[in-house]
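Feature request disguised as a bug: please show the residue count (289) next to Glycosyltransferase 2-like domain-containing protein in the output. Example input:
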Amino acid sequence: MALGVVILNYLNYSCTIECVESVLRQHDVETRIAVVDNGSPNDSADRLAAFCAGVPNAEFIANAENLGFAKGNNVGIAVLRRQGIDRILVLNSDIVLTDDTLAGTLSRMDVPDNVGVVGFRTENAEGRNSTPRNVTVRSGVTIFRDIYTTLGGFKNKYITSRPIVSTVRKAVAQHDDSPRILNPNSETLHGAALLFTENFFRDYDGFYPGTFLYYEEDCLSILCQKTGLREMYCPAYRVLHKERGSAKMAWSKDAEEIQRQRQIESRAVAQRLAKMSATQVREAFRFDR
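Example output, currently without the count:
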C-alpha cells in the first residue's frame, strides 16, 4: 500500500525540506509526497518547486494565498486522494521522522475498522511528549457514552479479540506502549503528525475547513464525539517536533495578540461545530466530493 504524505509550508522552506528529506529516507515503502506552499510572501514557492522537481515521488502545489492550516493541508490531501491514495500522513513542516522504518510500518499497520486517525508521540528536542492533548470543546457527554468510548466501541477488535477487563487495564496504563483508542470526550491527538486512514476517507475528506489556525484537533474530536469514528494513539512510534518554525518567522512583536485572536476565533468555530447535530457534523467534513 502506498503511503501519502502531506507537508504544508509557510515561509520556512528550509524546515520543510528537512521534513521531506526525512520522508525520503524511509525504507521498504512507496511514498507519494504532496508539498503545499500556503501563499508564503517570501521565495518559499520557488525554492520548494526547484527542490521537488528533483524528487520523482514529490508533487509541489503553490496556493495563491494563505488558506490557513486546515484548508492548506486539505489541498494536499485532495491531490493525493485523486491519485487513489487512501492512507495519508499529514506532517507539520517542523516534523522530522527520526525512525527510517516508520512510514513502512504505518503503511502496513492493521487499523481497527472504527479508527479514522492515528497519532504518535510528538517529542521536542528535550524529549517532552505533547500527545495526546486534552479536549477543550465537547458536544455534551453522558456516563454511558464515556464508558462506550473509553472501550473504543464494540467494533474495536482490541476489545472483541481479548477480555474487556484486560483492555481497560491497558487503556489506563500510561506507561504501556500498546496502541489505545482515545476517549473523544477527554483526549485528542496532536495535529503536528496525523495518519488519516482509509476508514476516515470512506466518509470524510480532511480537516474541518472552518478554522484558520488552532482547534483543528478539537474539531476532529467533535467528529468522533458525534459519530462512531475513533482516534488511536500509538506511543511506540515517535517523531521529532521542532516546534513552531513557521510561526516564529511569521510573527512580529505583536505575535501574542495575533495568537490570542486566532485562538478566540477558532474556539468559537469549534463551539459552533459542537452544537450541530451528528448529521450536520458529518456533512461539514464532506466538502470535496
